[in-house]
Amino acid sequence: MDHSQWKTRQTRKLLGEAVEESPTYVEAGYAFALGQAVYDRRTELGLSQAEVARRAGMTQPQISHIEGGDSVPTLALLTRLAKALDASLTIDLDGDTSAFSFTAHEGGGPGGIGAGGRSSAA
User: Fold this and answer.
1) Residue 93 backbone class (left: φ over 0; alpha: ψ -120 to 50; beta: rest)
2) Tens of pLDDT along 79-110?
C-alpha cells in the first residue's frame, strides 16, 4: 500500500470501513480507561499520587504508570487501590467496549460527601 491509500484507523471507522483491532490495541484501551478512572477519582478526592500510593501500600511511580495506562495492576493491587480511593471498583468488559468506575463508599466523596467517580472507554 502506498501513502496515497493509507488512512488512519479513526478515518476508516468514520467512513464505515471495517477496522480490525489487534488484541494489544484493545488491551491498551483497557489500561488507558482504568488509568483515567483512577485519575478521576483521585483528583475528585483532592489527593496526590503520593498520598494514594501511601494509602495503597504502593509507590508514587506505580500510581503514575497506572494513571498513564502504562501498566495494568493485578486484582490484589486493584483491591488495595479501590480501598485507598475509598470506593468500589466496577469493571465491565463487554465486547468492543469497556467501563471502569469507582463508586464512593458512603461518606467517601470530597470532604466526606459521598460522590462517585466514573470513566469509560470504547
Assistant:
1) beta
2) 999 999 999 999 998 766 788 999 998 865 55
User: How far is the CA of 98 from the CAs of 2, 46, 82, 87, 91, in angstroms?
Assistant: 34, 26, 18, 19, 8
| Three-state DSSP class for residue 87 | strand
Dist. CA 51–CA 56, nearest whole Å: 9
Q: Are 66 and 81 in contact (CB under 8 A)?
A: yes
Distance CA 111, CA 99 (A): 26
Contact 52, 81 (CB under 8 A): yes
What's the rounded Cα separation, in Å, for the pair 73 and 16?
35
Q: Determine the 3-state secondary structure of 122 from DSSP.
A: coil
Q: What is the pTM of this model?
A: 0.73
